[in-house]
Each structure stands twice: as structure tokens, then as C-alpha cells.
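User: Study the shape:
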Amino acid sequence: MSDASSKHNEIKTLCKALSSALEVDKKTELKELLNKLYAIRVDEKLLRATGAGQVVGKLRNYEEPNIAVLAKKVVHKWKTDVMAANSRRNGPPVGATSSSGSQTPSSVSQAPTPQRPQPGERISDNSQMQPQNSDDRTAARGPSSGTAGNDVSVPSSLAATRPASSLGTDGAQTSNAASPTESVTPQTQVPRTAATDEASIPQTGDAVRDKCAELLYNSIAIDSNADSELLAKRASAIERIEFEKAASTTTAYRARIRSLCLNLRDKKNPVMRSNLVEGDLTVERFCSMTSEEMASKELKETIEKMKEENLFKAKGAGRTEAATDMFRCGRCKGRKCTYYQMQTRSADEPMTTFVTCTICNNRWKFC
């Protein structure tokens, strides 16, 4: 079995165990599984195939702070791995050295934005201008330390997007201790859409229906790592079911699609979006859900609390009944009764007493 296949199987197994542990709230097991996932180096293809990002992403808002921080570290580390893998695959060769023997990456990685080649930096023909004296050479290298034989060069185009890190002798990126507060590069914050994915959504021949399917795809794929074919399949199935219920592209049909898109885009409800993509929530069940059922856990708790408060406020003051043995029931001759008094006549008249026998439920009144 190849290394990629074994990683795929291992991640799928760990994610399945992670979901099971989350359902039964086993905090110790969650930490162990997250640590194992943190130790695995991934790439974009592997994350999309396994859907691991969705599973781990659920834990970033977990009630236990230690688990939430650990989940954020795993996600941050995976983003770093994907960026490093993409740069090795798409960027210029890493490790080119000058005629003097080496070039350190410090002066390049510290630049906040890509700049034009300056004296002492890489130029277009992959060669490096030599400093005129020892002071210039020191300035070009920057404050980095280490032997010249182990230093490698970094493409200047990556300096603005890659986080501060050190590079090993094999050109692989070795990230420092990941922190959940570290900023994410703009590249990873761009939401996925049908246009960016170049998704092939099944066409119906109706411009309105095709546009609705595209909107549903954009709402499902906003932060998903799943394959574009799977997302297109889910979006097309939802649109087809809603069209069959409406029978045509009526105003009600468009309003329903708009409502589904808004609920899918809810940043506080990534669980529903993830369950829909993974198949835990079927398309048929999703299309039959109301807006209240689609609400996030926090919103449902808020609505339930408001209902309880409104019910309590709506309750009027009821009459107060007292138990007594002063009265005798004319039907069963018992003395276990309850009574209450109410002003039924004018204010200068005595109150009317209402009596109920608790034995035979006989009722009578007197003034």
C-alpha cells in the first residue's frame, strides 16, 4: 500500500473515531485523537478526499477550552502543510545557491510584500549579486545563524504568504509552535464558489434553476474541503427536490431557495453544513426542515428560553383555593373540601363562597 493510501485510511479511521468520541463526549479520547491527527502531514488533495477539515473544524468551538485550542492548532498546522506542499509543487526550485556557496532565507522571509530585486537578493536568472565587501554581505544575510552549507534560498514570491518558519536541508518547511491566535493568510480565507472550483453542475436548461443550483453550491462549499463533484451533486439534488415541490420557478420557489442558502451560510452552524456534505443529513430530510429546525444549537436554546419566558409572562393570576373541614358535603356527607371566595355582587354585599368536595367533586356556593 502506498504512503498516500495509508495516510488516507489512517485519517479516515481517526476522523471516524473522533466523531464517535464527540457524540459521547469523551474528552480524553478527543485529545488523544487530535494529537495523532496533528502528527500527520497532509496536502490539499488528501484533505479534500477525507473531509478531515470538517470533522476537526467542529471542535474549534468546543466547550472545553483545551480541546478547542488543540483543534485550532491542528487546523493551523494543516494549512501550513498545504501551503508548503503547494509551494514545492508550483514554485521555482528550492535550494539554488550562489557562486559563493549559499544564501540564507532570513532576509527574504522578513519582507512583508514581494519587492523588486535589490542588491544582494535573487534576480530573474536565479543568480545572486555578490556584496562588495564584508559589511554588505552581512547586511544581505540578515541576523540568521547557522552554517552556510545548510542554508537554502526561498522564492521571494512566497515571502508575503508563508508564515515565519525555518527550512530544513530537504527544503521542507518546519513550522514553529502553532498558536490559535496566529493570523491566516488571505489565500486561505477566500471562500470556495462554483467559479473558483470550476465545478460542473448539471444543467437543466432553465436559467433560473441553474442559477439557484449555483447559489446552493456556493452556500455548501463556503468552507468545505469536500470534492467539487460531491458538492455539485448535493446542490443539484436540493434544487431538484425544491423545484418538484413548487412545480415551477415561482416566487415561492425562489424564496425557499433563498432561505436554504441563508441557513447554509450561517457561520454559527457549520455542523449542519458538514452533515449535509458527509451524508449524515440526507438531502430529502434537509429539504423538509423548517427554518427553526435548521437553526444552530445556540439559536435553538435562545428560542426555547424565549418561549419559556413568554409562557410564564402569559400566565394570569388564578384563584387560590384553601382546604378546610368546616363544610359538610350534602351528597357524600364528607368534610374534605376546598373553597374560595369572590365578590360577585356590589361592594357593600358580602363575598360569595364557592365550595368543592374533594371526595365526590360536588360543588355548591353560599353567601
About this structure: Residues 65-90 form the longest helix (26 residues).
